[in-house]
Amino acid sequence: MSQKSGARFTEKQGHYLAFIYTYSHMFGRPPAEADMQRHFGVSPPSVHQMIVTLERNGLIRRRADIPRSIEILVPPESLPILSWLGIKPSKSL
């Protein structure tokens, strides 16, 4: 589990958070659940459950009335995959 900046999440949750962050940075909007389903090769209920878990754990925020409204609440520098890839977090996200 990550403990940097007080964020605590599993390795799999970290991969989802890193994907959401990277996708948002690349395309200027958060991914849809279908995008995550394709990327991770999992079923729609699996992706939805992960999003619900991330939200329940305070790692993301989203608005039910707005599609693609995922906002990451974890400092990007605490995402291990980003530091491994050498990606510098963007201040604009």
UniProtKB/TrEMBL annotation:
SUPFAM superfamilies: Winged helix' DNA-binding domain (SSF46785). It holds the Pfam family Fe_dep_repress. Residues 9-60 form the HTH dtxR-type domain. This is Helix-turn-helix domain-containing protein.
